[in-house]
Amino acid sequence: MQQTLTQIAIFYHVVDLMSFSKAAKRLGMSKGFVSKQISQLENDMRSKLLERNTRHLKLTFAGEELFKHSRNIILEYDHATQTLTSLQNNPAGLLRVTAPPAYAAHMLAKHLPNFLKKYPEIRLDLNLTGEQLNLLEFKIDVAIRLTHTPPADRIAKLLGHYQLQVCASSHYLKQYPNLKHPQQLVEHPCLVYSTEKVSERWPFIIDGERTHVYVKPRLACNTYESILQGVLNHCGIARLPSYVLVEELKKKNIQLLFNEYLPPVIPVYAIYAQNQKISPAVRVFIEFLQSIAIDV
Q1: Of 2, 5, 66, 220, which alpha carbon lies 20 to 30 A from 263's?
Q2: 3-state DSSP call for residue 108?
Q3: How does DSSP classify residue 295?
Q4: pTM to 2 decimal places
């Protein structure tokens, strides 16, 4: 198996450079040895991988498929090597992070001072925005993304999950003790997050099917904090992320509604570039994010 893995690595470099001689130079091997390993790999795989003449190399269909897998093997090996190397270094330097404002306010803000005290040589630059910034363009080291579909060309570390929960103040709900089903929302004033594309259409799972209930906004606002204040002041019913509600639920100032009808939870990821060397600062920051994350 070890020999086959070596041959696959050699095959990757040959295809990556489209040259036996260049691959041999990169690997510190002779061209003849590289050629022999590719021939042996083709024999072991029982497939022609490369069409070759004196001037050109061309991948066969089997070669194309193997190259896709070999690339993943090389990337994972490099990633593992860089991770182990980074463990030997001290976390330091500038760390650029982007995150949604509400998530930062409710999940990061109170914990960041402890992180900075623990790693005094790290300087943190936070860019708080709901926009999904290009990591390379903005030189972002870590992006916190709340999504079911993290980018395929990035490394995504799962931090936890959250839920968009329907809630109202305890005082408000005392007036409506029979509020039991999402369809009843049409009879109540609602506070909606205006940044959502369909802020007046709330999704639920009813009788096993995804169903939308159209609500009547009494307040439309682009910040969760303002909507939460409206809830706490008994202005109506809102749909807010669970991480926004944690403290008020502990104080029993609000109550949750329709939990059995809610759609699936939403993952929270730490995203960083696939080809970047993992610095000690990135490593410890992701560990920090994992330590403070909540699951719904």
Answers
A1: 220
A2: helix
A3: B
A4: 0.67
Structural domains present in the chain: 2-86 (1.10.10.10), 93-162+266-292 (3.40.190.10), 164-261 (3.40.190.10)
Q: Return d(Cα 60, Cα 66) in angstroms, integer.
A: 10
Please give the structure tokens belonging to residue 193.
Answer: 């997050």
Q: What is the pLDDT of residues 96-152, one digit of tens each?
A: 999 999 999 999 999 999 999 999 999 999 999 988 888 888 889 999 999 999 988
Percent of the chain with pLDDT over 70: 95
For residue 169, give both structure tokens.
């103040």
Residue 36, classed as helix, strand or coil, is: helix
Could you give the 3-state DSSP secondary structure of residue 294?
coil
Q: Which stretches of 109-260 are assigned E, i.e. beta strand? A: 122-128, 142-146, 154-162, 164-169, 189-193, 201-206, 209-214, 216-221, 237-241, 254-257
**3-class DSSP state of 198:** coil
Pairing verdict, β 189-193 and 254-257: unpaired
